[in-house]
Structures are given as structure tokens and as C-alpha cells.
Amino acid sequence: MVPLSGPSAADGAEFRKGVMLAVEEVNARGGIHGRPLSPVFVDTKHQSADEVVAAARKLIEIHNVHAIINGYNIGPQNSEYEPIADAGIIYIHHNTLLQHHDTILSDPDRYFGCFMGDPADYWYGQGFIKFISWLRDSGQWKPQSNRIAIISGSKPYSIVIANAMAAAAAQFGWKLAFGPHIVATPTTDWRDVLAQVRAVKPAVIANTHFYAGDLASFQLQFMEQPTNSIVYLQYGAMHQSFVDIAQDKAVGVIVSTVIGLLRDDIGQRFARRYIQRFGEGSTPQVGCQSYGAVHHYAIAACIAGGAGAPGAFDQNRAVARALRETIYRSVAGIIRYHPDWQAAAPYPDYVHDPSLGLPHLFYQIQDWKKGALALIAPEPYNTERFVAPPWISPDS
Q: What does the pLDDT average to over 88-93?
């Protein structure tokens, strides 16, 4: 279930590519107990509850799929869990939704097959406050004040992240000077809210909206009158499309993901395979989500003795147990499902052992022409260091 059209089409295209590459690799190794995987894609368009539920039903009732594995669909708020639970198949998504925890905990037996392959949105907020505090405390950045401005998109995902930032700020010595201020999104006009932000002279500006094109407009309008502030843009600034629009004005922006591609040998070899397969314009940093989930599922299904079709509850319970019990070292890091939430545990936001959690990665755009994101945190995964954005005065 992937948004191949609509505002998240850029991500949807990469989620599709990640599934395709993983399926090709699994099949080249013999499939699951000799049976090849066959991918089927349904467009979730604007990712409304009706669109995503309809996609799930089509996959189950028409295509008889054994599992649904995809990136995110922002909008259904777990309503798609119902037809999936009725069918008793495996579902691995990356909706980054705290509500996933609540749904699983409400009835673990019914939702045994529902897994979230990344940590919940909540961890973005807490992790960001820890990140800027680390920059400050390690001497990499000297903020002009302790004031933070938080802007949120109107999707629940964005609001949860913004509220988590606000809730954690004071604990680490930050003062909330503006927000969380919710802007109706999608939008390309940020000038009114930016005027309000400039008035409080914050050391940090965080925008938790996540559409790449909208965020590019935000950054261009911020640069019309920049302040001495770190600028954090939620997730969408990872996309090549963001840099294509913002160009040199993108340099200095910080962006993070609770599931992203590592820069080690495993991650680099994957990126080369991905780009060789899909071309220079592709984004392995996004496609890695669905790619890793397919491989993890294939391993679990092999351990369990095979995949299960709709209605094969016992077989799919065995697959679900193998998913919970099998720690998988993906190209994004460690996928270790929490036994109660059935979501990936984050490092360092929840676990302090990098061998037991998926790293919350922070990038900075440092060379827009090359389109490369500098991985600046967390240790020990970082390969570059934070650089003060060019719009910040060296004397501030």
C-alpha cells in the first residue's frame, strides 16, 4: 500500500523500489522455502482512511496476499488494521505512529500480525531536544539563547512530534518561545508564521511538517530574512526534491529520521545496488525502509516454515513470533521489535545499546550540488560533524 500519487508520491515511489529490490534479492536466493515472492502494489493516493482501507481489502480479497509490507501511509490512524486482523496476515509498515502502540496493547491477540518497522513519532520530538542539547553541551554549537520556536503541520504525526518537543524542552534547559503553532498543511506560504517566529529571535526553529516541496518553500522564505537559528525540518528535507527546489539555500538545514540509511559498508553497498537498479535520481535513504522489512519478513517466514495466506492464523502467528524474536541487522541498523508494542525500539532515545535499537539519525545538508546528506549524529554512527549554517553570524 504505497502513495504513488498525491503529496507523498516521492516517498511512495521509493517505498515501491525498496520492495522491488528486496523481492528480487530474496527470489535470487530461492525465495521462502523455494517459493518466490510476487509483489503487488496499490496506490493509496492521499492516504485517507478510506483509501488505505480499500487498498488493504483489495490486496487481501483480490490478490490473496500473505503479507502487506510498505513504508508509511499518514492518515488512516490504524483503521487498516481491522481488515488485516480479520485476515490474520502479517502487516509491516512505517507509519511512525504512537497510536500503533495503543492499538497493539488494546488487544495483542487480535493484532498479533501488525508490526511497525520504525519507532513512533513521539521519539522524534524527544530525540530532537536531546540532539540540540548534545550539540550545545559538546561545544559544537553555541546558541545565542535558550529560546525555541516550534511550527507544526496539521497532520496528527506532525502535532505529536511538536508536542513531544515542547514537553521535553524545559528538562534540558530550553525555553519554548513560540508554539507549537499549527499551520494548516499542505501549504507553500509560510511568511506570516515566519514573521511571528522572527519576532522572538529563537536559537532553534523546528518545523514538524513533512512534505518535501512545502518544506523547500519554508526554507526559501526563511532565507529572505534569516535569523541566527538552527533550522530543523521534519523528514521531507531528506529528499532530493527538497534540494532541487531550495538549492544553495538548503545548505545548513538539519533533518532527521528514526529509520534511515547508515553510512557503513553495509549501507553503502546497498545504496550502490539501489542506484544502479533505479538510477541516480532515486533515494535509497527512503527506500531502505521497505527494503529491510521485506528481508526481515522473509527470514521470519523461513524460520516459521513458510508464509501464511489470509485465514492461515496459526502459520502467521508463527511468523509473527519469529519477527518478535529475531533481531535483524538491516541497512538502517538494528530492527528489534519491542515485545509489547511490536514496534522497533529506538537508539539512543529508548535503548542505550546501539546493538539493540534502531538509530535516530540526524543529517545536515552541507553540499547541495552533490545532494549528499552529512550524517552528524548519533555516535557511533555519525560520519561527519555539525557545521554552523551559513546564515548564522560567527559573532552570535
A: 98
